[in-house]
């Protein structure tokens, strides 16, 4: 390492340290809202478990020591992460879309917490590329501008990767819900046909099933038990779900309850429609991938067949040829 590179590296480390110290001094001088409000609401319960899977958490007292060994480190970097998350949110926007995908993915995370996760993913990518460029600088590559551009691209790539991960989580949960829906609809139809009411049938199905759709129905049941009308609860489920079939099911169930239509027939029809839609989607997927289905036949099976057919003849010609 040349003296110039070593000096630049030490200067960069010193500048980053000074920025961290200055940011922490500013954060310490600013009294947060939690410290001003929480002393007056300490008599509230810390954990209130409602009926069903809905739970409400109250922030702990600031005077209570945390059991996490990373509490001090998180306290140091939390203000900077929050400001970086606000900056990412102002640049990217789309908070409504993020909130929608968080609901579809079944994550109990706010939009701000998701932005913080994006910043953390970006910092991980930035640190990986920065370490690689430092090693390259030790080897003699002292180009600064390409290294800064690569680090910036790594940070942006980490932010985008977390967003794509959320989209994939939402899509995977939608597929799981669509796969579970016919069975749960049939169970609800059987429970209603046996003489139980809609709420009792929903309670029986939720208590005896597991899965993503069962969790959504559990939330609906918890809202009904807390005084929400059944029609309003199912309307909310139809608005928040990302699966059209489930939205149609919720709307049909709400309309059936409102107009007095037999629920068993509606549920059986909904389950049949979902099964038919799944069968049709499978046929369409097979039709679109017909060419790809020929790839193993053409490139794997056919060459082996030709080899087995021609190899004995080649061996015979080699033996009979003088």
TrEMBL record:
<feature type="transmembrane region" description="Helical">
    <location>
        <begin position="119"/>
        <end position="138"/>
    </location>
</feature>
<keyword id="KW-0812">Transmembrane</keyword>
<protein>
    <submittedName>
        <fullName>Pilus assembly protein TadB</fullName>
    </submittedName>
</protein>
<keyword id="KW-1003">Cell membrane</keyword>
<dbReference type="GO" id="GO:0005886">
    <property type="term" value="C:plasma membrane"/>
</dbReference>
<feature type="domain" description="Type II secretion system protein GspF">
    <location>
        <begin position="185"/>
        <end position="309"/>
    </location>
</feature>
<dbReference type="Pfam" id="PF00482">
    <property type="entry name" value="T2SSF"/>
</dbReference>
<keyword id="KW-1133">Transmembrane helix</keyword>
<keyword id="KW-0472">Membrane</keyword>
<feature type="transmembrane region" description="Helical">
    <location>
        <begin position="6"/>
        <end position="27"/>
    </location>
</feature>
<dbReference type="InterPro" id="IPR018076">
    <property type="entry name" value="T2SS_GspF_dom"/>
</dbReference>
<feature type="transmembrane region" description="Helical">
    <location>
        <begin position="144"/>
        <end position="161"/>
    </location>
</feature>
<feature type="transmembrane region" description="Helical">
    <location>
        <begin position="291"/>
        <end position="314"/>
    </location>
</feature>
């Amino acid at each position: 390492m040349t003296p110039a590179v070593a000096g630049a590296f030490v200067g960069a480390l010193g500048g980053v340290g000074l920025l961290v110290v200055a940011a922490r001094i500013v954060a310490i001088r600013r009294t947060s809202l939690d410290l001003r409000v929480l002393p007056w609401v300490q008599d509230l319960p810390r954990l209130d478990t409602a009926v069903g899977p809905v739970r409400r958490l109250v922030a702990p007292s600031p005077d209570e020591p945390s059991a996490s060994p990373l509490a001090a480190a998180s306290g140091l970097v939390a203000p900077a992460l929050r400001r970086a998350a606000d900056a990412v949110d102002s640049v990217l926007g789309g908070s409504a879309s993020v909130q929608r995908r968080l609901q579809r993915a079944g994550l109990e995370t706010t939009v701000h917490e998701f932005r913080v996760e994006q910043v953390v993913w970006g910092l991980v990518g930035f640190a990986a590329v920065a370490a690689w460029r430092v090693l390259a600088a030790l080897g003699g590559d002292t180009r600064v501008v390409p290294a800064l551009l690569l680090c910036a691209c790594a940070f942006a790539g980490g932010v985008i990767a977390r967003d794509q991960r959320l989209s994939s989580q939402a899509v995977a949960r939608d597929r799981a819900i669509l796969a579970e829906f016919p069975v749960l609809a049939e169970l609800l139809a059987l429970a209603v046909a046996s003489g139980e009411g809609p709420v009792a049938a929903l309670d029986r199905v939720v208590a005896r099933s597991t899965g993503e759709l069962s969790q959504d129905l559990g939330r609906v049941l918890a809202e009904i038990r807390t005084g929400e009308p059944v029609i309003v609860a199912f309307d909310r489920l139809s608005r928040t779900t990302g699966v059209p079939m489930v939205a149609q099911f919720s709307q049909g169930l709400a309309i059936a309850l409102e107009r007095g239509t037999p629920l068993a027939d509606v549920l059986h029809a909904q389950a049949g429609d979902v099964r038919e839609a799944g069968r049709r989607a499978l046929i369409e997927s097979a039709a679109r991938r017909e060419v790809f289905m020929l790839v193993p036949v053409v490139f794997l099976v056919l060459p082996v067949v030709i080899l087995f057919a021609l190899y004995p003849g080649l061996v015979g010609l080699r033996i009979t040829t003088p």
